[in-house]
Amino acid sequence: MRIPFLDLSIMHESIIDELDRSISQVISKSEYILGEEVDRFESSFAKYLDVKHCITCGNGTDALELSLQILKVRSGDEVIVPALGWISSALAIQKTGAKPVFVDVEKDSGNIDPDEVEKKLTKRTKGIVGIHLFGTPFDVRSIRRICDDNDLFLLEDCAQAHGAEVDGTKVGSFGDVSVFSFYPTKNLGCLGDGGAVVTNNDELAQKIKSLRNYGKLEDGFVSFGRNSRLDEIQAAILNVKLQYIDQWNEQRKKIAAIYRTGLENRFSFLAAENAVYYRFHILSKRRRQIADGLRKAGVEVKTSNILVAAEPVFSVKEKFPQASFLDEHLIALPLFIGIDDKALNLCLQHLNKH
Q1: Helix axes 16-29, 36-49, angle to 10 degrees
Q2: pTM (2 decimals)?
Q3: pLDDT over 80 at 305, yes or no
């Protein structure tokens, strides 16, 4: 029996009639860009997060770049970012001309370490980008305090943490601005690319709304913007899926609980109680042996490297012990909506042989 790492078809089959109906309505209206579906999603997602504004755009990377632009990050500035994660955050900082300053992470979560952040503050520090890695919220209250105490902005990268909460408050509402990706694999994903910026700041929201549409406002083109707009069909898909995000996140938590119980005392895990499990990871010093064994048994796992600070494009010579340890030992197990108990039990059987 082959067990894929990810299979989105089962989730989509469960709501296919709603998706078909929603897409057909867009086609029949012949309104494809910045129409009713986009307006409805922006309003609904802002309400879901309990923030004032949601402004959609073409993808999560655009959301990061637009956010840094309205936060006035420029050449000569420094922006702190975790050494572990996906490359988009650091690339977006680099593209402004500013310097991404990497910091080590917490060993138990893989998230940005507030103590390490304090060590990297300089007169040039403009802000902090925190990533809620793999669906586990970073210590956003501590990072928020550091920002407030030092007059820095906080940008939350929530691309892997739709619906995650800290003390009952959803991530995305702590930052000056926060960004989301709706890439198909995300907990809330469309069927193509998509992204959003959310904020409680009226002025920043207006600037994002202009920049994503060539810099246009009612009075004309007022700034040098870009074409980065979520299309109506993707918004329609997200409007359907948003109704299920909490239900699906609960399913992810149940799958993770099965893994944790079945592997207790054999592996350590990278997650927290308030995670929404975009990915579920175990750690092992025998990563290659275990991963190869699982693949031979038909279980697809991921061991991709995510130590961003080590990528050649950044030329960083500094060492990050915790981030490096995790980068070398993480194994991501199959986790998706619709994976059945038989598949999970087979995964556990193969893992418990090692």
Answers
A1: 130
A2: 0.96
A3: no
